[in-house]
Write a structure and sequence with these properties.
212 residues; alpha+beta; single chain; 9 helices; 10% strand; 4-stranded mixed β-sheet; globular; Glutaredoxin
Length: 212
Amino acid sequence: MKALQFWFDPVSPYACLAFEQLPRALEGLSYRVDYRPILFAGLLKQWGQKGPAEIEPKRAWTFRHVAWQARRLGIALDTPAQHPFNPLALLRLLHACARDGATPSRWQCEQVLHHVWHGGADANEARRLAELRTRLAPARDPDGDAVKQALRDATAQALARGVFGVPTIEVDGRLFWGLDSLDMLAAYLSGDAWFDGPAWDEAGAPRPGVVR
């Protein structure tokens, strides 16, 4: 059985789609998943990027593409009333739900993703956040220093592994980024011979080129 690390931030619609699609994409394969909430903005800062929603033409395309993908896959998805938004409260809540160094459960992650991506409401509206917190009954205080540090540590761990975007699924030290990498991940878990030869390393090898 392969151990998968699912690095995600609920601010990302692709993270929500990949989360929903994952069981279907990997049906019949032997695996388990640890869900690891991280701060997408921390990745962007480290790698010197802007988020898709911060570039207007890219934002418009992203949400058109997301709407199409959701329709194609038969996944319910509604854009929240405000986006981008600050996901810290949701990320800390997920870390507060994890017990004894474990990761949050799939159900807990699902509740948070549905809170954001179902219904089109404000993800940070105080009443809704309070209801979500009551429903999840976190084991630790989401506003406590330990939980805040846990989120910082998780984001640092992701960066140390080379994670640059969400969602990213890590298995055997290999990173599979984005919703559209799920079929590639399934091929790897199925034992596709392409991954056993030099092709993986050769395809990712740096090429001399223009540096900006």
